[in-house]
């Protein structure tokens, strides 16, 4: 059975829960309601013993365009209990295997959430970008910690300080994804891996995943990022960046 609530579609494939971003008219840009729904779904999956793995995907050719800026600025996060921060923390502490099947663009959270997935498969037309500095913001989801650890400081600087997109082949070379596949093979590959994981001992999987994660460092970095993120939201840099976005022009930070 497929359920669609607040632009989040959920379904089951055996022991695997599939969560799809389902707002194609807005390129799956994430709203406050979508984050709230995602938090409910993840909490239910964590408590449901019949769910052995979770796969994230989308219902269109864009994985997610990141935050819906209009909705985001009307409902900005104010602290750790905000739905967006709860979702990010939920990903980082989720005990069961997380997988992602990424087709098309993954912007902002569409990139950073992948750092908390255990397996990531992308289509050959995928493009990932972390545009935070370009919007006057700072990185999220402990990406300022995890990306340098994964690929080294200078490579991470291209992604986080310049906000430059990387294509599927670059993502594979940098160790951000497991495989690059044709679009119609991405979700099937993720589901195949999820089925294999479902055959493993669940407690051993949880313990092994926990041992692989430096959750204390991730939690600390998320708190630091979150404080700076909230502070920057009220800055003139963000005002200029958001204004430029809606006016379809390049932001001018020369006065700051």
Word description of this protein:
The protein is an alpha/beta fold. It has a single domain, classed as Alpha-Beta Complex (2-enoyl-CoA Hydratase, Chain A, domain 1). The chain is built from eleven helices and ten strands. It has helices at about 30-45, 70-75, 85-95, 110, 145-150, 155-160, 170-175, 185-200, 200-210, 215-235, 235-245; strands spanning about 5, 10-15, 15-20, 55-60, 100, 105, 120-125, 125-130, 165, 180. The strands form two sheets. It has a seven-stranded mixed sheet, sandwiched between helices. The chain has a three-stranded mixed sheet with strand order 6-8-9. α1 (about 30-45) packs parallel to α3, α3 (about 85-95) packs antiparallel against α10 and α5 crosses α6 (about 155-160).
Which residue ranges are poorly predicted, with pLDDT under 50 across at least 5 consecutive positions? Answer: none
Oligomer description: single chain
Q: Which CATH class applies here?
A: Alpha Beta
CATH superfamily: 2-enoyl-CoA Hydratase, Chain A, domain 1
The topology string of helices and strands comes to EEEHEHHEEHEEHHEHEHHHH
Total count of strands:
10
| Helical/strand content category | alpha/beta
The rounded Rg comes to 18 Å
Task: Classify the helix fraction into a percent range.
Answer: 40-55%
General shape: globular
Main beta sheet strand tally, sense and closure: 7 strands, mixed
CATH topology: 2-enoyl-CoA Hydratase, Chain A, domain 1
Question: What is the number of domains?
Answer: 1
N-to-C span: 53 Å
The CATH architecture would be: Alpha-Beta Complex
With strands numbered from the N-terminus, the spatial order across the biggest sheet is: 1-2-3-4-5-7-10
């Amino acid at each position: 059975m497929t359920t669609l609530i607040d632009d989040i579609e959920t379904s089951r494939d055996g022991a695997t829960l599939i969560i799809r971003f389902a707002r194609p008219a807005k390129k799956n840009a994430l709203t406050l309601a979508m984050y709230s729904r995602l938090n409910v779904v993840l909490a239910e999956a964590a408590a449901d013993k019949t769910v052995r793995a979770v796969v994230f995907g989308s219902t269109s050719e864009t994985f997610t365009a990141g935050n819906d800026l209009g909705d985001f600025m009307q409902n900005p996060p104010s602290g750790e209990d905000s739905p967006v921060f709860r979702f990010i923390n939920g990903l980082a502490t989720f005990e069961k295997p997380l997988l992602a099947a990424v087709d098309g663009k993954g912007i902002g959270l569409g990139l950073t959430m992948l750092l908390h997935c255990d397996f990531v498969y992308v289509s050959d037309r995928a493009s990932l970008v972390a545009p935070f500095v370009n919007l006057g913001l700072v990185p999220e989801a402990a990406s300022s910690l995890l990306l340098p650890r994964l690929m080294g400081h200078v490579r991470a600087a291209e992604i986080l300080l310049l906000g430059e997109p990387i294509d599927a082949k670059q993502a594979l070379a940098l160790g951000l994804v497991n495989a690059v596949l044709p679009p119609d093979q991405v979700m099937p590959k993720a589901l195949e891996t999820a089925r294999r994981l479902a055959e493993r001992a669940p407690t051993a999987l949880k313990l092994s995943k926990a041992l692989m994660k430096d959750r204390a460092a991730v939690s600390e970095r998320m708190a630091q990022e979150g404080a700076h993120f909230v502070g920057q939201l009220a800055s003139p840099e963000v005002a200029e960046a958001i204004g430029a976005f809606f006016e379809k022009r390049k932001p001018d930070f020369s006065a700051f």
